[in-house]
Amino acid sequence: MGIPDSSRDPLFLVLFTWVFVSIYTLHEKVQNSEEYFNIPYGWERMPRWYMLLARCFGCAVIEDTWHYFLHRLLHHKKIYKYIHKVHHEFQAPFGMEAEYAHPLETLILGTGFFIGIMLFCDHVILLWAWVTVRLLETIDVHSGYDIPLNPLNLIPFYAGSRHHDFHHMNFIGNYASTFTWWDRIFGTDTQFVAYTEKMKSGKKTE
Which terminus of the chain, N or C, has fewer Cβ atoms within 10 Å? Predict the structure, then answer.
């Protein structure tokens, strides 16, 4: 199931995906949060900041795990050209490209976003906090810039833009979205590690 060539404009696809997939899904979740999911939204039930932070971290771990295995599956040679190839049309990522993907990919990989919400959400503020955190993270790793003093780099095992830039350049390995541990455990970062070491040794000899 491909996308017609006329629909391949990056801005068109990003807007289409957000309007018809992401925003609609989020709207339904928030609109029915208390009635169907028993998620309160009143000020008196607002969680403490440290609990909100802990739950956002839990959501990130779950999403990263889901993303690693499903993203790796989307790279399988039998299905890659039908879905995930759209996202890899850009070998040098930039901010908007973070959301440039086949609508099916948005649904498949985006499911991981909601698993943590279903498990941890005790207030609608967590939904919006997690949306903000996830967007900041995905734009950062697709920005194409390894920004000095980036506060996200203070997070242990944070992948960052270099990790994901290599994925777009090499197409193989570095499948995780946020953290590096799954790639390290399953050895899908070996080419990235070798490339990084080569770059470091090259700088030393200059």
Answer: C
DSSP 96-137: GGGG-S-HHHHHHHHHHHHHHHHHH-SSHHHHHHHHHHHHHH
Block residue for tokens 């993303």: 67
Q: Does some domain include residue 109? A: yes
pTM over 0.90? The answer is no
Token pair for 82 = 């039908």
Question: What single-letter DSSP state applies at residue 177?
Answer: S
State how far the alpha carbon of 46 is from the alpha carbons of 6, 31, 141, 202, in Å. 46, 18, 30, 52
Domain count, the chain: 1
Is residue 56 one of the residues assigned to a domain?
yes
Q: Which letter, b or e, does each residue of 44-73 get, where b requires 16 or more Cβ atoms within 10 Å of its Cβ?
A: eebbeeeebeebbeebbebbbbbbbebbbe
State the sign of the Cα–Cα–Cα–Cα dihedral 133, 66, 16, 101.
Answer: positive
